[in-house]
Amino acid sequence: MKKLKLTVSWIEDKQPSQQGMYFTAQRYPTGFGVYDVVAWDGEKWQLDSTIRVVGWIAFDDFLKNLDISWPASDLKSDAAFRAEHQSGEDNFKPDDFVEVD
Fold first, then answer.
1. S-S: 59 plus which of 21, 49, 52, 94, CB 3.0-4.6 Å?
2. Cα gap 4→34, rounded to integer Å
């Protein structure tokens, strides 16, 4: 696999306004830095309190910048799913859908 440089527009020095999953740059007390996907619960990062998030971006925004191939071993399953889904499209009736809370 070829190494690819990706520039991220990090959000720094403020917290997210919504709960969700975020791609983060983290700094450990030892000085070691890592990237990881972390949940924000609306008040705090779901991390050990000694780890400092120094930058973040919404995970879906991060993924929008990538075009990643799907694992080849699963392509047969994907094709079977698509075939089943497409064969049932004509049989769908809008009033067959029931939403349950």
1. 21
2. 17
| Token couple for 33 | 């830095």
Say if residue 92's pLDDT is above 60: no
Spatial CB neighbours of 32, under 8 Å, sequence gap ≥ 6: none
52: helix, strand or coil:
strand
| Domains of the chain, residue spans | 20-91
- Alpha carbon separation from 96 to 44, 83, 91, 99 (Å, rounded): 41, 21, 10, 10
Model pLDDT for residues 14-64, shown as the tens digit of each residue: 999 999 999 999 999 999 999 999 999 999 999 999 999 999 999 999 888
